Amino acid sequence: MTFENLVTTIENNILTITINRPDKLNALTKKTVEEIGIAVKKGESDSSIRAMIITGAGQKSFVAGADITEFIGLTVEQGKQLAQAGQNVFRSIETSSKPIIAAVNGFALGGGCELSMACHLRIASENAKFGQPEVNLGLIAGYGGTQRLIQYIGKTKATELHMTGEMISAEQALHLGLVNYVVPQDQLLAKCEELLGKIKTKAPKAIAGVINSINAYFKTDGFATEVEEFGKCFATEDFNEGVNAFIEKRKADFVGR
Ligand code: COA
To answer: Please, where are the H alpha helices in the chain?
Structure first.
């Protein structure tokens, strides 16, 4: 498989998908999200593949969010379409019948935190940081983050993280139940492979049944509300201010319109 923004490898029946825009901290363009969808679909349909790992290139960032530069000038409708397309790809990860681990090798912010949460398991390196900083841009999460963060860490802390936009450390993420393990960066992929090594010895249909049953517990319609609310942000002055402030590398001054 050849991609513009991904590198994929297959070893020991594990497909590793590496998001490869390290100079932009692996921020997710629309195209990158599409490519992730294609790679996961391939992993799902190829019978030689038993499991998948999703990670980011470099040692600094897993994914620092959706690519903010692509937000400029979007209408409400285009904002909704963007969120829906992202949600669709992330749902294909969550509903994959094969186990998918996020190897979180640094910043997992916004769409990056959401991507990790769509995976079935998360292992973080010690330098990883998680957060949903969209409010700093006058925006909310749009790729399922308002729904899945609650599922992992509960309403109390999820509300705080979405409202403050603050990051938490890998250790805090472990304490809150957002990640399964925290390991030194040079052991990250080995730890993922060790865990998948155990899972790969189990019956694939039983593993698919576990995934399907656990997902069934969390079926909600909140995802559609997230798409609506994400789209509405694009009609506000504060959203323009937030995005311009990020690009101009200054603090946003929000006015409430
Ligand atoms: N979208 C587009 N570009 C991004 C990005 C994003 N989400 N996150 C980082 N980048 C780019 C930066 O603009 C910068 O590009 P440049 O070198 O051309 O100026 C490059 O990646 C490196 O990032 P930089 O901000 O210089 O690194 P840092 O170590 O100072 O800060 C972060 C790291 C993660 C704290 C900071 O990049 C950040 O806040 N990113 C945005 C996070 C966010 O809001 N995500 C949610 C988006 S909805």
So the answer is: 30-45, 76-94, 111-118, 145-153, 155-164, 170-176, 188-200, 204-217, 222-233, 237-247
pLDDT at 221: 85
Query: What is the average pLDDT score of the chain?
Result: 97
Taking residue 182's Cβ as centre, other Cβ atoms within 10 Å add up to 22
Residue with tokens 């593949």: 49
Regarding the beta carbon of 234 and ligand 1, being less than 6 Å apart is answered: no
pLDDT of residue 1: 81
132, with CB counted inside 10 A (0-12, 13-18, 19+), is buried
Helix (H, G, I), strand (E, B) or coil at 168: strand
64 Cα to the center of ligand 1, angstroms: 6
End-to-end Cα separation, the chain, in angstroms = 45
Q: What is the mean pLDDT of residues 54-64?
A: 98
Model confidence at 220, in pLDDT bands (50, 70, 90)?
A: confident
CA of 20 to the centre of ligand 1 (A): 15
Q: Is 72 in the pocket of ligand 1 (CB under 6 A)?
A: no
Global confidence as pTM: 0.97
For residue 161, which of 138, 179, 135 has the smallest C-alpha distance? Answer: 135
CB 3 within 8 A of CB 58: no
Q: What is the mean pLDDT of residues 206-224?
A: 94
**Cα 244 off chain centre by:** 24
CATH superfamily of 6-185: 2-enoyl-CoA Hydratase; Chain A, domain 1 (3.90.226.10)
